[in-house]
């Protein structure tokens, strides 16, 4: 600690004498960038082959924790869906209408169609409502623990209601 | 005025000054695109048209690209691997956007496609 302080003071004094126009408090350039330090940490960590201490296997699950990973999961799933759609437009022959005709010809039954619609719209609605919750946090609102739980529950209710509503359309 | 000068010298005193505001701007850009996409979804329902199709394609792929980018940053460690993953992601996003634009141009377009799918 004392060595660090001494090093900082020494640097500061040196810069004050050598380049007075650049001497602003705490403007000393660092030896390594954050990226370099991270790279060093990870290469050292992986080479040491340390066992990973239990985290998700022992930590008590909470609603915000579960909702956060679901936000990421739905995001990944939705992105995969969009990419699949885009790529198949380029690679799979036949128009969209012809593909829909093919699905219609399978005579899947209204219950299955309805379930499929619900399955499509559920992750979208969850990600959308939770996304709004995220944007609220970015504005600095609703960050207390009780507000977190309340908004989380509101998102879940809204997700179910909107998914049911949209699937019925 | 003095504060601005101090800030510019602060940025200049570091190495790699070009990237000093990049992360912050990226963050803001992510939020702007998110809000844009949020607005586009009801707008596309109320006013489906070709312009909406292309706006949706662009906003959707950009939001998705940046989102998956964050996932890569979180879980992929090591300089070379992360660079490879980010490049792969860029290729995927580029093809996705190309595919969606192709669909909008040569086929019915996103808005009409959703409407047709829902009438099933």
Overview of the structural elements:
Chain A: Its main location: mitochondrion. Chain A: Component of complex II composed of four subunits: the flavoprotein (FP) SDHA, iron-sulfur protein (IP) SDHB, and a cytochrome b560 composed of SDHC and SDHD. Chain A: Pathway: Carbohydrate metabolism; tricarboxylic acid cycle. The complex is a heterodimer of chains A (169) and B (120). By secondary structure, chain A is mainly alpha-helical. Chain A is elongated and about 80 Å long. Chain A has a domain at 63-168: 3 helical TM bundles of succinate and fumarate reductases (Up-down Bundle). The mean pLDDT of chain A is 88. Chain A contains six helices and no strands. Chain B is mainly α. Chain B has one domain (34-118): 3 helical TM bundles of succinate and fumarate reductases, CATH 1.20.1300. Chain B contains five helices and no strands. In chain B, helix 2 runs antiparallel to helix 3 and helix 3 runs antiparallel to helix 4 (79-106). The longest helix of chain B is centred in the last third of the chain and has 28 residues, at 79-106. Chain B starts with a helix and ends with a helix.
Report a brief summary of the structure.
The complex is a heterodimer of chains A (169) and B (120). With 169 residues, chain A is mainly α.
Keywords for this entry:
heterodimer; A: 169 residues; mainly alpha; 3 helical TM bundles of succinate and fumarate reductases; elongated; B: 120 residues; metal ion binding (chain A); heme (chain A); mitochondrion inner membrane (chain A)
